Amino acid sequence: MTSSDTEKNSSNGTKNPASVESRLSKLSGADKAAIVMLLLGEEYAAKVIKHLDPKDVQSLGKKMADVASLPKDIVSEVLLEFLSSTSQMSDLGLSNSEYVQNVFNKALGEERASAALDKIIPEQSLKSLEMLQWMDAEEIYTAIDGEHPQVIAVVLSVLDHDVAGALMKLLPEDVRSDVIARISSLNNIQPSAMARLETVLKEQLKKKSNLNAASFGGIEAAAKILNFSGSEIESSILKSVSERDQKLAEEIEENMVTFLNLDSLDTKSMQTLIRELDNELLIPALKGADEAIKEIFLENMSERARDIFLDDLEASGPIRISEVEKAQKEIMRVARRLSGEGEIMLSGGGNEFI
User: Fold this and answer.
1) What is the pLDDT of residues 57-88, one digit of tens each?
2) Which residues, in sequence order, are CB contacts of 316 under 8 Å at separation 6+?
3) Pick the CATH number of 132-234 from 3.40.50.1240, 3.40.109.10, 1.10.260.40, 1.10.220.30
4) What percent of the chain lies above the pLDDT cut of 70?
5) What number of other Cβ atoms are within 10 A of residue 124's Cβ?
C-alpha cells in the first residue's frame, strides 16, 4: 500500500490494522478492563466493583477516568478480545468523571465513594484524608509508627477524637507531648508533611492518594484528643508540654473541660465548687452563660445564697464579653484545682473522669 493509499484510508475512516495493533499492544489489562467497565453501564459496573478490594477499586477507577479519548477502533478491538465477537460500537462520548462518581456511589455509598474518588479523579474537591476513617487505631499506628511527629500530628488531627485518643495511647511516651504541641499549632499543613504522609500511605496502606492542603488541628483539637486519652496519659502529656511551653499547656487545659462541661457535675461536686466561689466571680460568669448552666448553679445554692445572688445579678450593669470569659476561665481554674485535689469529679469528652 502506498503512502497516498494510507492517507486515503485514514481520511475515509478506515482503520489501519498495523496502527490499531500497535496501540492495542500498549494497553494494559487494567486499561482494557476499564473500557469494558465503562461500556457495561452504571448498574452492572457497580455490581462488579463491589467484589473488588480497595486497591483494585482505586486502580480501576483511575483507568476509567483516563480512557475517554480512545477511538472507536481501539474500543472495538478490546471488546472483540473480551467477547470473542465484534459489534458496532460508538466512541466513549461520556462525561467520565461524573460516570465514575455515579458508579462508585452505587457500589460503595456516597461517603466511601468520596474517599476513594479523591485519590482517583484529581479535580474532585473531596476530603483527601477520609480513608483514615476506614481504619481503627491499631491499623493507623502500624502505618505511622516511627514517622516524624509532624506527620503523626496531621493524622491525629483529622481522626474522630475517640480514635485519636486511642491512637495517642499507642504512641511512645516521649512522642506524645511533641505531637500534642504540634496539633495545637496546626493551621495549614506544610507540603513536606503532606508529601511524607502520602508516601507513608502508599507504602504502608498500599493505596494511592492525592492529598490537598487542609485547615484543621489547633488547641481545641489537641484538647479533645487528650480528653479521650485517659487521665494518666493526659496528665503526663500536659506536664511535658508545660515544661516546653507553659502557656500552650494552659490553653490546652482550658479547652479540655470548658465552662459548659460543668453541667455534668454531680450535686455534691457542684455544691463543693460553689462554696469556693464568690458572687463577684459568679455574676459575670453566669450573666453570660446559657440558661441551662445558670439553672444548675442556682439549684445547688442554698435558698438564702440564691436570693442574694439573684438580687446582685439583677442590680449588675452590662458586662463585657471579655469579662464573662475571664470569670468563666477563673471558675474553671478553681474546678480543675478541686479536681486535682480529689474534691470533685470533672467529666471530660471521654469515658473516664478527670
Assistant:
1) 767 777 776 665 667 667 667 766 665 433 33
2) 283, 284, 287
3) 1.10.220.30
4) 60
5) 19
In angstroms, the CA 216 to CA 320 distance is 30
Average pLDDT (95-106) is: 57
Residue 11 φ then ψ, to 5°:
-70, -25
Beta bridge partners of 188: 215
> Is the model's pLDDT at 119 over the cut of 70?
no
Confidence of residue 282 (pLDDT cuts 50, 70, 90): very high
| Cα separation, 148 vs 199, whole angstroms | 13
Task: Kindly report the average pLDDT of the chain as a whole number.
Answer: 71
How many distinct helices (H) and strands (E) make up the chain? Answer: 21, 0
Phi, psi of 67 (to 5 degrees): -100, 15
The helix (run of H) or strand (run of E) holding residue 94 is none
Q: What is residue 347's DSSP assignment? A: B
Cell of 79: 471488546
Query: Dihedral (C-alpha) 102, 106, 109, 113: value to the nearest 10 degrees?
Result: -40
How many residues would you count in the chain?
A: 354
Locus of grid cell 464579653: 321
Distances (CA, A) of 4 to 7, 9, 19, 20: 5, 9, 16, 19
| Mean pLDDT within 208-237 | 61
Residue located via cell numbers 505511622: 144
- Burial of residue 192 (number of CB atoms within 10 Å: 0-12, 13-18, 19+): exposed
Q: Residue 254 contacts by C-beta under 8 Å, 6 or more apart in sequence?
A: 223, 329, 332
- How many Å separate Cα 227 from the centre of its chain? 18
Q: Return the number of other C-beta atoms located less than 10 Å from residue 248's C-beta.
A: 18
Distances (CA, A) of 191 to 211, 221, 222: 10, 21, 21
CATH for the 257-340 domain, from 2.40.160.20, 1.10.220.30, 1.25.40.10, 1.10.3720.10:
1.10.220.30
Inter-axis angle of helices 291-299 and 267-275, nearest 10 = 80
Give the cell for residue 311. Answer: 438580687
